[in-house]
Amino acid sequence: AFAVLCLACGLIGLGFGLSIAALNVLAIDRLPGRSAAAVAAVHMTLGIGSVIGPVLVGLLAGWKGAVLVGDGPWWLVPMLGAAGAVGVLAVLGGVGHRDRSATPAGMQFGDLPARLLVFAAIALAYGGIEALFINWSAIYVKEDLGGSDAIAGLALAAFFGAMAAARLVFALASLRRPLRFLLVASPLAGAGAFAVMAGVNSAPLGVLAAALGGVTLAPLFVYLLSLAALEFSDRQTTVSGLMMAALMAGAGLSAIIVGVLRAQADLDTIFLAGGGISVLLAVAVVLLRPAPLAA
Predict the structure, then answer these.
(1) Is 82 exposed, middle or buried (0-12, 13-18, 19+ CB in 10 A)?
(2) Which of 70-74, 84-88, 192-196, 249-253 has the highest mean pLDDT?
(3) Which tops the pLDDT comparison, 107 or 134?
(4) Residue pLDDT, tens place only, 196-223
């Protein structure tokens, strides 16, 4: 049964990676010249879904028992997922695409420009620090700060909710003018959020620190992806796929590394290390000197 569960998780991850990479490209197509706002909007709605999903599962769990076991309506969860997939296909079926017949269909790894690999390396590191909040904030709030299961779950919801709200503001603001300063300000502020998380002494403050992490980290990846897509505009599909692969790989590596380090270090120390990586990300972005987005 556990192997089946792992297989299901792998298929969910596969579907997520394939769909979000394609949706990034589609969003940039639909808002040419406003790629930062387009990508931010896609990831903002993704964040909203990440908040609503656990809430729905919690509501269903209270209806005639647990959703995934026992006599509860477990079948509603896959049905909701299938309905969402059908809805996306119905919407995308009527959306036009730009003609890309004159652009490269794909690239071999050895053909990728060095600068694009640097973009991907930054995305990899970002995926790692974002995963610190996603994977460990609830555990930290419960085990280290003594919070209840409900408060611990609220920490993760606060992170995703705050990130979605911040990306909405970022998307709207980016329609007026580029916010290039956020490329450096976001990881630096994220370092502060990690320091706050490591220093809190109560579960409610841990929830607020998780929300602060969501707000501060929200612009970085979407802006970075937008700039990479702008700089390599003839390879946007490749760029989106590579950046999303790097993001997810960073999240996976983070889970493995932190799982190993927990035997030697407390989570507050690990959060402080995440803040140090955030500072290094700010330095890396400055050294990369990406081309500015159009005003």
Answers:
(1) exposed
(2) 192-196
(3) 134
(4) 999 999 999 999 999 999 999 998 988 8
User: Are 218 and 170 within 8 A, CB to CB?
Assistant: yes
What's the pTM value of the predicted model, to 2 decimals?
Answer: 0.75
Q: How far apart are CA 108 and CA 85, in angstroms?
A: 30
Tokens of 257: 């590394």
Q: Rg (Cα) of the chain, in Å, rounded? A: 20
Any idea which residue has 């060095």 for tokens?
114
What whole-number distance in Å separates Cα of residue 125 and Cα of residue 247?
A: 8
User: 23-55 b/e with 16+ CB inside 10 Å = b?
Assistant: bbbbbbbebeebbbbbbbbbbbebbbebbebee
Q: Cα 155 to the chain's mean position, in Å?
A: 16
Place of tokens 């909710």: 161
Q: Residue 171 is encoded by which pair of tokens? A: 């998307």
Is the separation of the CB atoms in 263 and 140 below 8 Å?
Answer: no
* Cα–Cα distance measured from residue 251 to residue 1, given in angstroms and rounded to the nearest whole number: 25
